[in-house]
């Protein structure tokens, strides 16, 4: 079968055309290897419960294919329904049920999971060997997912760039694997407000083994659990400049993770639905599939163009954050940051 033959007869696309696709034909459209998809099917089978009432649903495998196709492509929903020979309502129902099942798969298999003590030590070691910055178990940032204007409170979804969006907060390890995600807040809020609303901000110190920490940009508040750079008012010392440079290089992994996520699952570039509950479910599902692909060493570099250079630091945010941490916590965080700064090799400034 040639690369273009599969588009000639869409009536039996899932039943006859996709099974004849070779790997090099399957991956560009589903954004994962057939072997990764087979493992996904196996995991979904463990948790998927067929409907027993209402209209009959399409077969399980076709539902999974339709869902991955939807997340991987920017084809119109009408076009997807036609391609898979189902009504739009049937297609939405299939996507909803598969995405709900994905949450159960994640719960059982810990595809997105906070690292154990041993795993945290492994992550920290990789960050240190690569960047010379000690104690990192994850890089945190937020990204906007463009959406259709919601019916209710649509103004609150307009972000600072002027379009409607919801926010995705992600924390990833050295390998772009998400260890924590939080999605669905309105796009108008600040990254740090997003952080405070997430469960991540309430994780106990015991989850940060051996005085480890996350790293973030200047949108976040410095704490002992979250290292950020020194604000540059033109008076930084050489050591502070080295610290900022090394932290920015290490932090860039989360920017690359988001680029990979949106490049592989292109639906996240624009989600055309007005249901907030579906928005969060779709974003979380894409993050789970992102991790599954990485765990399978399912490379996307051949199908996704990731920017080689990411912004080392965002533009300085207005200093309008509330002091929600007590003074002694702030002092401990500053002492910790200074100790890390003093331990960095000065040649890293070059």
From TrEMBL:
<feature type="domain" description="DDE Tnp4">
    <location>
        <begin position="140"/>
        <end position="291"/>
    </location>
</feature>
<dbReference type="GO" id="GO:0046872">
    <property type="term" value="F:metal ion binding"/>
</dbReference>
<keyword id="KW-0540">Nuclease</keyword>
<dbReference type="GO" id="GO:0004518">
    <property type="term" value="F:nuclease activity"/>
</dbReference>
<dbReference type="InterPro" id="IPR045249">
    <property type="entry name" value="HARBI1-like"/>
</dbReference>
<keyword id="KW-0539">Nucleus</keyword>
<keyword id="KW-0479">Metal-binding</keyword>
<keyword id="KW-0378">Hydrolase</keyword>
<dbReference type="Pfam" id="PF13359">
    <property type="entry name" value="DDE_Tnp_4"/>
</dbReference>
<dbReference type="GO" id="GO:0005634">
    <property type="term" value="C:nucleus"/>
</dbReference>
<protein>
    <recommendedName>
        <fullName>DDE Tnp4 domain-containing protein</fullName>
    </recommendedName>
</protein>
<comment type="similarity">
    <text>Belongs to the HARBI1 family.</text>
</comment>
<dbReference type="GO" id="GO:0016787">
    <property type="term" value="F:hydrolase activity"/>
</dbReference>
<dbReference type="InterPro" id="IPR027806">
    <property type="entry name" value="HARBI1_dom"/>
</dbReference>
